[in-house]
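User: Teach me something about this protein's shape.
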Amino acid sequence: MKDHVEVLVVGGGSAGLTVAARLRNHPNPPEVAILEPNTKHYYQPLWTLVGAGVFPKEASERNEADFIPPGATWLQDAAESFDPENNRVTTRAGKTYSYDFLVVAAGLQLDWEKIPGLKESVGKPGTGVCSNYDYNTVTSTWDNIRNFKGGTAIFTEPSTMIKCGGAPQKIMYLADDAFRRQGVRERSRLLYCSPKKTIFAVKKYADELDKVIARKGLEPRWEHELKALHPERKEAVFTYPGGEVTMPYDMIHVTPPMSAPDVIKKSPLANADGWVDVDKHTLQHTTYKNVFGLGDNSSLPTSKTGAAIRKQAPVVAENLLKLRAKEPLGASYDGYTSCPLVTGYGSLILAEFDYDKNPAESFPFDQSKERYSMYLLKKVGLPNLYWHGMLRGRA
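Assistant: First, the predicted structure itself:
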């Protein structure tokens, strides 16, 4: 591989592959190289259903090589530093690549270590600590749910930005359903501990989710954030305005704090919060005009979801190609994102909204209502759209 490439895409996840595919599908495609160290690619939205016993985790896994777009070069390495002043990226293996255009789609990182007691206990048998947020721990969620004999089950959400903002609550609704099927719900408490003050940011969907919570007898603990675990005693420490409380648990599903990858945080591309600093409509970097950012590592003020990436990727591809042709940028992103809120086995509220938290729904019915059809969309339709449409640059 030569040291210079026309378009360098950093990250071969959902965002990187989708943009690369769209660029290569163009009638006059640019030369594209994708910098990605991992040999496996995961459809992470499926992990909620894996954690609920609907799918084996292997259903979410594919070979990265199968989704590198035709004509693109795969650099199986990771970014170590960015030098946008000189249009260069240095890799973990010590190689330096220069570029004409850079697309930064490096995802985010899970900061397990920020909660004492979490990293060493999550996914380990006997601890009761589980999480759907990692391929290596997701099956521990189902192990805990199906072996639950009653007691206290806690579900947490951090105050940081996270991928799939609805996932921390979705597994709680499924666990409630599972406990009822197993005959242990009557002797169980399900607590939802969140630093927020409401269940969802868009009122239309929050109102319906409040009804779900009431119907299921779930117990929200608003403005409560997990700060430490004592797995040997099965105790969780939460902070709340004005104090701290220790709660015992029999099972705890933890959504870890998340942040931009360290390589982004320490780079000139980052804003004060560590995210790739881009214009929220054009997705062009605010300082370096030949750089674009999208997906979970971006500063975009919207939920970090695959559905958001599906709308961001065409904007990045079109605007990059316009810049390449020395034409004005024409594509604009309105902040669209989607959160398929599974409320049980066979029911789902499909939340879709924009930057202004206005519903932006795709179907000719009220999507705030729980529907079996939308559950099937989540279970069958969206995975197929992802593998065969989105990653191929066709949807």
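Now, about its shape. The radius of gyration is 21 Å. The chain has two domains: 4-108+260-335, 112-257. If you'd like, I can walk through any region in more detail.
User: That's plenty for now, thanks!
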